[in-house]
C-alpha cells in the first residue's frame, strides 16, 4: 500500500501534527508507535477484549458499549513509550495498521487517493455516532463498588483510579468558561484513606441526624400516641445510618468539584454545628453564575470521560456536602462553593440502572425539549 496517500489530505496532516505534540495521543494513534504495544495488546485478550491493533473489520459503534476500560489502561502505561517513539519520524506512523484502515461503519483500507475523501467522511460519521451513543448511554449508578478484577498492568487498584481521574480531570479542564479563567478546582480522595473513612463517617452522622429529626417530627404529629417507642426509633435510625456508612465506605474514589466565588458568604458556617445542613446560597452576580455553569460543564466532561472507560459515577449534591464537617475535610475557604461530589467506582451488583432508561417525565424531543422558531 502506498502509505503517503493516507496522509495526503490537509485534515489528516493536521491531525497527525497535533498528535505528536500531545502527551497522550488520541484514540486513533494508540498502540501504533512501537512493537512492544503489540505484545501488550495480545496480553489484554486474556480478559476477552479486542486489541486496538486488530480492529480491522470491526464496527466503530462497538467502541462505545463493548470495549472495556482495559484498553485505556494500556494507553496510560505506554505514554512515555509513545512519546519516545513518536519522535523517530514519519516512518513510524506509516507502519500503523490503524491509520491504514480508518473508515466509517467498517475499518478498511484506503486503497487510492480518489477514495480517501469518501473514507474520511465515513470515518467522521462513524466516530460521531459512537460519541453520541456514549453520551446518550451515560446514567447515574446507585451502588458503586471496587473493581472485581484488577486490570492488566496494575498492581494496586488505587493506581487505576488515580490514572482514570487524571484523564477525567484533563477532560474537565476543557469545559467552556467566560474569559477562560478556569474557575473550578477538583479535590480527589482515593479509598482506603483517612479522608474516605472520615467522609463515610460524616455520611453516617448526617443521615442519623436527618432520620432522628424526621422521627421526632412524626412522633409529635401523632395525636393518638401510637408511634414506636423512642428506643426503637433510635435503633432503627442507627441501623439505617450504619448501612449508609458501609455503602459509602465501599466506594473506591471520590472527586469534589469546587468553584471560588467572591460573593459566597462563608461567615454563615461559623455558628453551625459540625453536621448541620448549611442553607443554600444562590449565585449573586453574573460572573458567579457563569463560573458555576462552567464548573457544571466540567463535571459533565468528567462523567463522560469516566463513562467512556466503563467506569460508573454518581453526581451528589445532597446534605453531606453542605455541612461544616465536609468543608473542613476538604480544607475549603469561606468563599469556596461545592458544585459536585462525584462518586466513582464499578457498577455494583443489584444496581438496576438501565442505560436505555428514559427520563422520568418522558418529555418528547420535538415540540417540547426542542422547539423550532
Task: Please give a structural write-up.
This protein has 373 residues and is α+β, with helices and mostly antiparallel strands. It is built from 12 helices and 5 strands. Strands 1, 2, 3, 4 and 5 form a 5-stranded antiparallel sheet that branches. Helix 8 crosses helix 11 and helix 9 runs antiparallel to helix 10. The longest helix has 28 residues. The relative contact order is 0.12.
Q: How is this structure best summarized?
A:
This protein has helices at about 10-20, 35-45, 60-65, 70-75, 80-85, 90-95, 115-135, 155-170, 195-220, 230-250, 285-310, 325-330; strands at about 145, 185-190, 255-260, 310-315, 335-345.
Q: SSE layout and pairings?
A:
Layout: H1 10-20, H2 36-44, H3 62-65, H4 70-77, H5 79-86, H6 90-94, H7 113-137, E1 144-145, H8 157-172, E2 184-190, H9 194-221, H10 230-249, E3 253-260, H11 286-308, E4 312-316, H12 324-330, E5 336-347
Antiparallel strand pairs: 1-5, 2-3, 3-5, 4-5
